[in-house]
Amino acid sequence: MLVRKIFKDVIRFNQSCGCKILDMPFDLLTNDPYIRPINLRRDLDEVANLVETCFADHMDAEGRAYLQNIRRIGREGNPFYLDTGSPETSSVPFHGYVCVENDKIIGNITLIYIKKKEQNIYFVANVAVDPQHRHQGIAKRLTRRALQHAREHNGKSLLLQVREDNPIAIHLYESLGFYEITRRTNWGIDHRPAVLTESLNSIKVKPRSTENWPQQKKWLEQIYPEKVTWFLPFQLSNQEPGFFNSLSRWLNSESIQFWEAKDGERLVGLASLEVINPFQNYLWLATSPAFEEQAIPPLVSTIAHHTSHPNRIQLNYPAHRAVTAFQSIGMNDLNTLIWMENDLPYAENSAR
Q1: What are 235-291's pLDDT values in tens digits?
Q2: How many CB atoms lie within 10 A of CB 164?
Q3: 302 shares a domain with 213
Q4: Same domain membership, residue 240 and residue 133
Q5: For the chain, first and last CA: distance in Å?
Q6: CA 43, CA 107: separation in Å to the nearest integer?
């Protein structure tokens, strides 16, 4: 259970802090004497210190909990599994590579392996370089090694996220063949928004009717396409009404609230609030560009007034959409992340 939780924390930490293959032989990219695979038992505490140093300005309560979990795995993890394994074989989601100089770890890249439809997909969970060693090409060398690792293991693609306001990193990843696939903004709430009396006079918000599930499903698939949900704590099947889903949530102590918004008889939006961990409640919106400015303020406002901790609400949404609607209820743009992908050629020779 701890490992599964930490895997989700790795992805969410990357989001809260927030890369065409070079035309050169890949063997030229791997002969770097300063880069080696991470040794989880020996390196985790030092890597945690490095990550904390690199992302101190963006660290929140969840980020600190993530670091505590890294250190806990290093202390309490089974030595056999920590000393062996790889991104492909281990359930511990901290495998990757480190850059070492004078016996000190000065850089780290974490690789997450995912099997999707019989294809090997890799995700860069974080790239951290000691501030005193930046602008020396370490991040580029680590990313090249990650590309090589994915290619050696017949990876179909390597994905990562980079902050929209980090042009240096964006350029680095583009130079290595990554291209943008989408942009997503993470929104948060500092305090309970005021009740939008004027909006609520025309938009009625109430618990979801099961008959509206087909429309909700269609909108959710548009806003949270499969490639996006790989790296979000989102399961479309969890949103579906029905006895067995309700029973499963009860047995697993999962909490999801469902709401809908109507303008007269017209359905304009739906939302579900899901408790992810003690620090975050994810709000999953289902609407269309035609209705979102109208539906989002009353939906989010009503939901925030029905939860004890509105400051824990976080929302992932397509970037630069419904900005006025979110800002009108006091939501904050936490960050906008560019999701990038590198399509890897099939390494037929390495498979033999």
Answers
A1: 999 999 988 888 888 888 788 999 999 999 999 999 999 998 878 899 999 999 999
A2: 16
A3: yes
A4: no
A5: 36
A6: 12
